[in-house]
Structures are given as structure tokens and as C-alpha cells.
Automatic annotation (TrEMBL):
Location of the HpcH/HpaI aldolase/citrate lyase domain: 13-215
Organism for this UniProt entry: Allosediminivita pacifica
Name of protein: Citrate lyase subunit beta/citryl-CoA lyase
Residues binding substrate, per UniProt: 74, 132
Keywords associated with the record: Lyase, Magnesium, Metal-binding
Length: 283
């Protein structure tokens, strides 16, 4: 039986595409991102929500635009009063289009959303949840146990705002301390336990500094994350180069474990090689 992580094994990058205008979505076919997330939430003002929904449906029903990529539509959360309208639009999309659901705090939100989808005549959907609050972290196991859930994202800016803690270190290249690093690790561990993919983000204060962005992405990788959201297209290749171990590193790990004379490979080297290959199973 193929696991969820194996199913999404090639998913490293998810490019967020705003839909408030026609400026960005025509560039989707030329993107090297593994997945596209059409945003109906934060990037779309209230007066433009209807137009954005129309664009989302048109894009998702155009195979030439999708170009073989995983497709997500990020809807508005249930507190917004806009979710039902968003789900009506999602119901008009092909079954393989998935929902990205923000600010989740309880598994019951998934039940309600699934019921709403069915009311609109749409099929059940795979769901990628965004954990952006301490309440969401506290309910991780129940949320990720739901069979509809295939992925989880740590929404770190909203989380820091809710907690009232510092977000980035003085260099602007990683989280400041344990208040942020602990939930990052907790979410990655829960994702591994429930066999779903896990994403972080690539945006930091010095988002044009490629070395700092790369270091930030490697921190996500080293905590067990399998992918990252890119809010700007130039971060996609940085994600591909840093969110996973490189091909030579994976090949070296395989060579170490395939070595006929294991006595010549130090114990810790074998364990590190096993760790790299476990992180990349199915990839």
C-alpha cells in the first residue's frame, strides 16, 4: 500500500498564487514549482472574493494551465463567513484539486467542511491543513488522524502573533528561540507519525538574501519537513536545492549502507545514512 508521503514524494515546493488580479496566474505553466496554491484568503480583499473564485475555477479546469502540477485552493476559514462560498467554487473543480484549509484548531472543522462540500454536489477532497495557533498545535493528533488530511503547514507568523513571542533571530535567518522552534519540531514529528507531508515557509525579513533563505530552508529540512511554500517565484529553486538532501548526499548514504564490509563504515556514519534515506523514502 502506498503511503501518503510516498504519494506526495515529489512535492517539495508549493507556489502561492494570488488571485485578486490577472497578473500572476497566467505564469503558472512556466513555473518549476511542484504544486500551486491558488489563494482565496489573505491576498484577496473582500470586494474581490467573487472574482477570485471565478478565476480559481477557470484555472483548475484548464489542463494546459495546471501543467501536471498538484493543485490546492486555499479557502477562507470557517470564522470568516466566506467558507461556504469558497467550497461552492471548489465543488466545480476536478476531483484531484485539493483544499488548503487555514487556521485549523479542531478536527470538527474538517467534518463540517466535508459536509458542506457534499451539499454543493462536490466530491470529497484531500485536505492540506495550516496550523497557525497554539490551539491548533494542541489538537494536532486528532486533526492529522483524519483520513482526508494529506499535509500540514506551520503558519509561523500568525502563530507568533497569537503567542506574543519573538519570531526571528537578530540575523533574520531563523526563528529566535524555543517558543518558535518547539512547535516547528512538534508539527514535523506529528506529520511523520501520521504519514502526511509537512511544509514550512521560505519568507524571512532578508528574503532577498539567498544564503539566509537557504539556511532557513535547511532548518526546516533538519527538523523533518518535506516541503515549503514559496510566496515569491524566485524562492522555488532555493526550496528545491535546500528542503531535501542533494542527490549526491543521498547516493553517498546508499553507498554507505550497501557497503559489503560494514565494519569499515563507522556506526554513527551508518546511522546518519539511515536517517537521510528515511527522510527521503519514496522521493
Amino acid at each position: 500500500m502506498t503511503s501518503i508521503r510516498e504519494t506526495f514524494g515529489t512535492l517539495r515546493s508549493i507556489l502561492e498564487v494570488p488571485l485578486k488580479t490577472d497578473r500572476f496566474w497566467p505564469k503558472i505553466p512556466g513555473s518549476t514549482a511542484d504544486a500551486i496554491m491558488l489563494d482565496l484568503e489573505d491576498s484577496v480583499p473582500a470586494a474581490q472574493k467573487d472574482a477570485a473564485r471565478t478565476r480559481a475555477v477557470r484555472i483548475c479546469n484548464d489542463p494546459a494551465l495546471i501543467a501536471g502540477k498538484h493543485m490546492f485552493i486555499r479557502v477562507n476559514g470557517h470564522q470568516s463567513g466566506l467558507l461556504d462560498q469558497d467550497l461552492a467554487a471548489v465543488a466545480a473543480c476536478p476531483p484531484e484539486v485539493m483544499i488548503c484549509y487555514p487556521k485549523i484548531e479542531h478536527e470538527d472543522e474538517i467534518s463540517r467542511m466535508t459536509a458542506q462540500l457534499l451539499q454543493h454536489g462536490g466530491p470529497a477532497r484531500r485536505i492540506y491543513v495550516m496550523v497557525e495557533s497554539p490551539r491548533g498545535v494542541s489538537q494536532l493528533d486528532a486533526i492529522l488522524s483524519r483520513p482526508e488530511v494529506v499535509g500540514v503547514h506551520f503558519g509561523y507568523t500568525d502563530y507568533a502573533s497569537e503567542v506574543g513571542c519573538a519570531l526571528f533571530d537578530d540575523e533574520g535567518s531563523d526563528f529566535r528561540g524555543i517558543a518558535m522552534k518547539m512547535p516547528r519540531a512538534r508539527i514535523a514529528a506529528a506529520a511523520a507519525e501520521h504519514d502526511v507531508f509537512a511544509t514550512g515557509g521560505s519568507l524571512i525579513p532578508a528574503f532577498r538574501d539567498t544564503e539566509r533563505v537557504a539556511a532557513f530552508l535547511r532548518a526546516w529540512r533538519d527538523d523533518g519537513y518535506t516541503g515549503s511554500i514559496a510566496m515569491i517565484p524566485s524562492h522555488v529553486p532555493l526550496i528545491h536545492d535546500n528542503i531535501r538532501h542533494t542527490a549526491p548526499e543521498i547516493a553517498e548514504a546508499r553507498d554507505r549502507l550497501d557497503n559489503a564490509d560494514q565494519a569499515e563504515v563507522p556506526f554513527i556514519a551508518r546511522k546518519l545514512a539511515e536517517l537521510i534515506l528515511r527522510q527521503h523514502r519514496g522521493y
